[in-house]
Amino acid sequence: MIDDRALDVLFRNARTANSFLDTPVTDAQLRQAFDLMKMAPTSANCQPARFVFLRSAAARERLRPALSAGNLAKTMSAPVTAIIAHDMQFQEHLPKLFPHDQTAKSWFDGDAKKAGRELTAFRNGTLQAAYFMLAARAVGLDCGPMSGFDNAVVDAEFFPDGRFRSNFLCNLGQADHSKTFPRSPRFAFDEICQVL
After folding, report:
1. 27-37 vs 114-138: helix crossing angle, rounded to 10
2. CA separation for the pair 108, 48 (Å, rounded)
3. How far is CA 56 from CA 23, 62, 84, 121, 139, in A?
4. For the purposes of burial, counting CB atoms within 10 Å of the CB of 60, is it exposed (0-12), middle (13-18) or buried (19 or more)?
5. How far apart are CA 97 and CA 56, in angstroms?
6. CA 147, 149, 153, 156 torsion: positive or negative?
7. Of 7, 67, 175, 183, which is least surrounded by CB within 10 A?
8. Hey, which CATH number is domain 24-176, 3.40.50.300, 3.40.109.10, 3.40.50.2000, 1.20.210.10?
9. Residue 150 burial (CB < 10 Å; 0-12/13-18/19+)?
10. What is the mean pLDDT of residues 76-89?
11. Which InterPro entries match (predicted)?
């Protein structure tokens, strides 16, 4: 089992960052987080998540029209905002990613399998996004994941060919903990779990 300090960083003391210090996020940190995330499992090793990291003022301005009023200031001032998306044609990479079964691509090819392909892309892309946030925390970054934006506007601006579809946004950097909300309640095990 990992030690208490690691558990604190990843879970117990981890909070949603709503405001950030003016500390840059480096390419090395983003690569470190990605290289940890990519090792975690997805079904048939499909790895559909795609990431666009917005750091420059020009890139942020492209995102501005999609943001809700409540997410505008914190996103425009975060050191980096990740657009976390998923590849709607992820199956094209399965011959490389799942080499021990060369029929895997056919599981998702064609119009008749579109619904299953979309569900698999969304589910596993979301799973990878969660892994990415844990990895980002592990390399010393705070995360501010959020909805509260217009996916269609983001997709039209950043993914105009329609192959990738945005899931959610995640601001990254060093949190200004003086502006972190108190922790909200959590369910107890016995309230929402069953062991059968």
Report:
1. 120
2. 13
3. 14, 10, 17, 28, 22
4. middle
5. 32
6. negative
7. 183
8. 3.40.109.10
9. middle
10. 97
11. Nitroreductase, Nitroreductase-like, Nitroreductase_HadB/RutE, RutE-like
Residue extents of the structural domains in the chain? 24-176
Give residue-wise pLDDT tens across range 19-68. Answer: 999 999 999 999 999 999 999 999 999 999 999 999 999 999 999 999 99
Q: How far apart are CA 109 and CA 101, in angstroms?
A: 15
First to last CA, the chain: 25
List, in order, residues 6 or more apart from 181 with CB less than 8 Å away. Answer: 15, 16, 18
The pTM for the full model equals: 0.95
Count Cβ atoms within 10 A of the Cβ of residue 40 and give its class: 0-12 exposed, 13-18 middle, 19 or more buried: middle
Question: Could you give the CA distance from residue 1 to residue 111 in angstroms, rounded to a whole number?
Answer: 45
Chain segment 101-156, per-residue pLDDT in tens: 999 999 999 999 999 999 999 999 999 999 999 999 999 999 999 999 999 999 99
Residue 169, token pair as written in the block: 């946004």
